[in-house]
Amino acid sequence: MADEPRDPFPGSGEDPGEEFRDMLRDFLAGNSDLDPAQLASAAGLPNDPELVQRLIGQLQAALQNSGDGINWSLAKEQATALAARSAVASTPAEVSALEQALHVAALWLDEATDIAALTAAPTLLTRAGWAEATMPVWTQLAEPVANSIASALTEVLEEQAPEELTSMLGDAGRLMRNVGGTLFAMQLGQVVGQLAQEVVSGGDVGIPLLDGEQRQAALVPQNVEGFANGLEIPVEEVRLYLAVRELAHARLFRHAKWLRLHLLTQITDYARGIRIDTGPLEELAAEFDPQNPESLREAMTSGKLIPPKTDEQLAALRRLETMLALVEGWVDVVTAQATARLPKSDAIAESVKRRRAAGGPAESAFATLVGLELRPRRLREAAAMWQAVTDAVGAEARDGLWAHPDIVPSEADVDDPTLLIARLTGGEPEQDDVDRALQDLLDDSTGERPHED
């Protein structure tokens, strides 16, 4: 009948509401006799017994957790486990070759920039080591959105859940928040674990992921070899080029001590401005099918919970993209100068740019999880600006622009570096005929320059 209340948890079977409650009872009772394929799909995992068993234990812990925070250690466990499963130990020869490449790269960089060398030796990381080392920064970037999703999920499910379910579980809001937070953390771990199979270095994604003075630069030997194997270029040249890029990136962030905090603050401030659209969550709660638990995972990872960006967010995104482009553009120019003696340096550079522009499935997943694309769109324009500045005033004056955030080139400088170069050289930018005619009109209207008879 039209006036009958709608069951907010319809699904297969005669009583889907009871089926859903039974599923939660199974978790609380420690019953792991659940469909592995469904559980794996819900968490974005392959249908692997070991991973599914870990998932069951983690969800049980989330349901029984008396706290109200997201357990981010799950993300690290997930990421390192996935990264380790695809790991292949580097041979001593590969490790030795990379260590030698890093030594030569440091010498070549000394010729291309006056920015001082690193104070800590670069690190060679396994895939699992990269995932573990970078997870604190990923967590920092993802936490605002994760909290927003968990809060929205709690609010919607508290409103939609049957009264008897709430009384059975007591604090249903806390429980749903913990479950939602656990699924999000595991999804983040899935993304970082996939990224660990692709990245070649600590700065490969464009943001400073390595934290601490003792770990300023790093390469992932297995992935360096994998990248080189996909090119028809001598592997020795690829190792050297990637070593120079990573050291240049690390030197910049160590030199401009304000830059790392500035960039991460911009990203987290942007993420805090994201609000979750509860409409899709309400639909999920109203149509939840216990036989299809991956619907919650799909909702979180599809990006449909994050509404279109506001004007303020779009403006913040442009500022962030400009800063990312300035960093990457500077690294590109310095790397090109330092590797000029490599016969295939231009070909390697183009391969790196194509790879960076295309991104990968893991980066796309992170963009939908956090609502932020970290790849700068204006990289080529920023690199052209840095090259023009280098040609005009040299490396020392160019690198001096990183001394303070107030003197870093602006978005307008990326569009047209003429005025920036004029400021650096102490001269006036050359005017074309239109500029001169406009200046004459302005001078005439203000009376600054008399008419000539």
User: How much strand?
Assistant: under 5%
Helices, by number, come to 20
Helix content: 55-70%
Outline, from the CA principal axes? globular
What is the residue-averaged pLDDT?
A: 77
Please describe the biggest sheet, giving its number of strands, its sense, and whether it closes into a barrel.
Answer: 2 strands, parallel
Secondary-structure content class: mainly alpha
Spatial sequence of strands, sheet with the most strands: 1-2
Order of helices and strands: HHHHHEHHHEHHHHHHHHHHHH
List unreliable stretches of 5+ residues.
1-21, 449-453
Radius of gyration over C-alpha positions, nearest whole angstrom = 27 Å
Distance between the termini: 94 Å
Number of folding domains?
2
Number of strands: 2
Descriptive overview:
- The chain has two domains: 16-370, no CATH class; 379-446, no CATH class.
- Helix content is 66%, strand content 1%.
- The chain is built from 20 helices and two strands.
- It has helices at 16-28, 36-42, 49-64, 73-85, 92-112, 127-160, 163-169, 172-195, 221-229, 235-255, 259-272, 278-286, 294-301, 311-338, 345-358, 361-370, 379-400, 411-415, 418-425, 433-446; strands at residues 123-124, 218-219.
- It has a two-stranded parallel ribbon with strand order 1-2.
- The longest helix has 34 residues, at 127-160.
- It is globular, with a radius of gyration of 27 Å.
- The chain starts with 15 loop residues before the first helix and ends in a 7-residue tail after the last helix.
